[in-house]
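S1.2 Input.
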Amino acid sequence: MQKAFRTYSTAQLPAGFKYPEKYLELAKSVDLPNDFVWWFDDASTEGG
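S1.3 Output.
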């Protein structure tokens, strides 16, 4: 079960791209329920 994820750095994103604030808040304080069915790309993993 995924418990945390890290966003991509500015250098890895297209010029001018900005994550929505709610997404950044979620990435900083992940507290997902055990039955949460979504997965987020994690920039710190090989697959991400």
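S1.4 Remarks. The mean pLDDT is 77.
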